[in-house]
Amino acid sequence: MNTIKELNQMKDDAVKGFEVSDGIRVVVGMATCGISAGAKPVLEKFIEEAAAAGIKDVKIVPTGCIGMCIYEPIVEVFEPGKKKVTYIHMDADRVSKVVSEHLVKGKPVVEYTIGEGEGNELKNLDDVQFYKKQKRIVLSNCGLINPEDINDYVALDGYQALAKVLTTMTPKEVIDLMKASGLRGRGGAGFSTGMKWSFAAANEADQKYIVCNADEGDPGAFMDRSVLEGDPHSILEAMTIGGYAIGATKGFIYVRAEYPVAVHRLQIAIAQAKEKGLLGKNIFDSGFDFDIEIRLGAGAFVCGEETALIASIEGKRGMSRNKPPFPANKGLWGKPTIINNVETLANIPKILLNGPEWFKSMGTEKSPGTKVFALGGKINNTGLVEVPMGITLREVIYDIGEDCLDGKAFKAVQTGGPSGGCITTHNLDTPIDFDNLVAIGSMMGSGGMIVMDEDNCMV
Question: Would you say 87 and 113 are in contact if contact means Cβ atoms under 8 Å apart?
Answer without folding.
Answer: yes
